[in-house]
Amino acid sequence: MEFLDTISVSDFQSLHIMLGWKFLDNKVVEKSIKNSIIKVSCVENGKTIGIARVVGDGFTHGLLTDVIVHPDFQGKGVGKAMIAYLLGKLQEYVNKNCDEFMLELTPTKDNAAFYVKCGFKHKPEEMEGCYLWLKNQNIYASGSKKYVMRLQEQPFENIKRGRKTIEMRLNDEKRSVIKENDIIIFIKKGSSTDYIKARVKALHKYKNFNELYKHFDKTSLGYAKNEEASPDDMTKYYPKEDIEKYGVVGIEIEILK
Ligand SMILES: CC(C)(COP(=O)(O)OP(=O)(O)OC[C@H]1O[C@@H](n2cnc3c(N)ncnc32)[C@H](O)[C@@H]1OP(=O)(O)O)[C@@H](O)C(=O)NCCC(=O)NCCS
Q1: What is the mean pLDDT of residues 69-86?
Q2: CA 71 to ligand 1 centroid distance, Å
Q3: Which of 2, 7, 22, 75 is deepest in the core (most CB within 10 A)?
Q4: Residue 57 has what pLDDT?
Q5: Atom of ligand 1 minimally distant from the CA of 106
Q6: By alpha-carbon position, which residue is closest to atom 29 of ligand 1?
Q7: Could you tell me the residue range of the domain that residue 13 belongs to?
């Protein structure tokens, strides 16, 4: 196991995607990593199995964030070793640049004990934390949310090239919460950095794919002009019982730059 003083965009993205954490644009990730005070990757046999970084003002306060160990390597001491390495680097930094430096973090309840094992102290109760997420109002309408969907290469490329504007899904618990103006990140299967960012323009709900197919030009569903479009193509992905139970949805999208 070795440590690097850097994090690659693709390692950051693939570990985040693996855990289902909030998806960020590649460029945002690149700049965020660059602006971090300390960043580390843990590598075993050429594969990145962990990352962590410290962000902050550089002189008085920092936040430990994006602490991730690949699920296959958790519980084997990797996280503790990685945090020890990161704290060593931060100590060197403080010795050069600061008088005193407070490193904070907001652990999920289940993980606080891990950080205590790494040498952190619990905040006294009167110092309980608060937080606020601010979203870019040019992208997000009020109350809109971001969802991630994975796509096979062909539909992914069709959407990317503007050849498919309706994404068809079962209208199950996962999809029925999607609303107009929500943002969908389509990630190409097998990749962590090839994705499309799209806005939901409209939602078209039907009893089944036969009904849905009647309402759209086949090219908007991703078929080529010379290709035959059949609702049966969708039963490859979804069992008939599920279609009957949930109905289906055509998610009309527009690509965002
Ligand atoms: C949390 C995480 C980074 C810990 O890394 P890890 O490699 O699994 O942890 P380690 O094996 O190095 O554990 C070090 C010590 O902490 C303990 N520990 C680890 N996770 C713990 C947890 N959730 N609760 C209590 N103790 C924990 C271990 O038992 C071990 O104790 P020991 O030194 O007495 O043997 C890892 O589980 C992870 O990536 N989880 C998913 C992402 C995440 O939740 N990140 C943190 C967000 S706050």
Answers
A1: 98
A2: 11
A3: 7
A4: 97
A5: 48
A6: 75
A7: 2-127
Classified as helix, coil or strand, 197 is: strand
Average pLDDT over residues 116-129: 87
Rounded to two decimals, the pTM is 0.88
| Probe target for ligand 1 pocket from 65, 110, 111, with the most ligand atoms within 8 Å of CB | 111
Distance from C-alpha of 13 to C-alpha of 20, rounded to nearest angstrom: 10
Tell me how many domains the chain contains.
Answer: 2
**Is 152:167 a contact under the CB 8 Å cutoff?**
no
> Does residue 129 or residue 222 have the better pLDDT?
222
> Quick check: is 21 in a domain?
yes
How confident is the model at residue 36, as a pLDDT?
Answer: 98
Smallest CA-to-CA distance from 204 within 243, 164, 248 is with: 248
Ligand 1 centroid to residue 137 C-alpha, Å: 36
What residues line ligand 1, using a CB cutoff of 6 Å?
Answer: 19, 67-69, 74-80, 107-108, 110-111, 113-114, 117
- Please state the φ and ψ torsions of residue 65, each to the nearest 5 degrees: -145, 170
100 lies in the same domain as 163: no
pLDDT category of residue 141 using cuts at 50, 70 and 90: confident
* C-alpha span between 127 and 147 (Å, rounded): 33
Domain membership of residue 93 (yes or no) is: yes
Q: Is 58 left (phi over 0), alpha (psi -120 to 50) or beta?
A: left
**pLDDT at position 127:** 81
**CATH number of the domain within which 16 lies:** 3.40.630.30
